[in-house]
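Hi V.,

You were right to ask for the full record rather than a summary. Here it is.
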Amino acid sequence: MKVAVCVHGRFHSFELAQGLHRRGMLESLHTTYPSFAVKRIMGGDPPLRTAPLLEVWRRLYPKLRIGPQPDFLIARAFGHFAERSLKGSKADLLVGWSSATLEAIQPAQDAGMKVIIERGSTHISNQTDILKEEYKRNNIPFVATDPRIIERELREYELADAISVPSRYAALSFMERGIEEKKLIVNPLGVDPDTFTFETIKRSDQIPRILFVGTIGFRKGIPLLLRAFARIHESAKLHLVGPIEADFTPCLEKLPLDNVVFRGPASGEELLKNYADADVFCLPSLEEGFGMVVLEAMASGLPVVISDVVGAADVVNAGKHGLIFPSCNEAALAQALEALVVDPMVRSDMGLAAREHILASYRWENYVERAVAAYEKVMA
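Predicted structure:
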């Protein structure tokens, strides 16, 4: 079986392509990243087809703000690029990222390929509905996903032979909108645990630090987190790592911020240090197809506190690796955080168990193994 991977950007496609390449299964990787960047990240000499001008466009727009928001135009342009670059392909299977594969689906199927759409979050309509309701509750104008993007994804869901999602929560959102369960592949993501620093003994002479990593806004449940943390703020510190959404900044003035530290965006060594210095990790999202940061925190030996609509809950054994609370329940979140803040031994035991769980089952190699098994079933 030979697989072509098409992605407008990176996401977790490079880890997938790298694993397939090592197995001799990668027919080609089609991406907006330039060849030199792909080879630096993946290593070796994978078979590539690239459209780097689309990546330049995507990265420059937030700085220059020239013309209309380009997400739809980039998705459509990449779809046409994938269609062209797949001509003559010897692949048996196309794995394409949602919203940017539409134009390539029918030609690939006409050429005898099966097509899997990779969707890293919940059904796009589910995501839109949840965010619309949250913005309404906070009296903030909601800028919806471009309806042309939604239309593209709905058509991709319909045409594809299968849809791959990273969690049962994401799969349920598809089934609730009429997608048959047999069309869905559920495959939790992976992480490279060797990247993350792990200390078996945390310093006990400092106030416990709760860490959040992600975009600071409504979707990630930040108002809920700040209100819940306010109940225990005298016994802990809360560090928020990530960019603040522009439309969320005015809301911060109305939220409790005692013992809250905004650290800004972080990557590389700085991000690793944030994980290493933390005692508890929290992701209280209102909608989250998976939540890669949960695996990163667990790989760093942190107990995690997450809402039950974070897809990574599939990976977390509640009470062993961390705690899971009902989404939007402020009191339950405060109680879960407090339970870990006041007991360093519980934190240590859960953190160690969380890291061992990642080492055993959630490396990228494990993810690729599960993906290949699913692909074989689709091909059969």
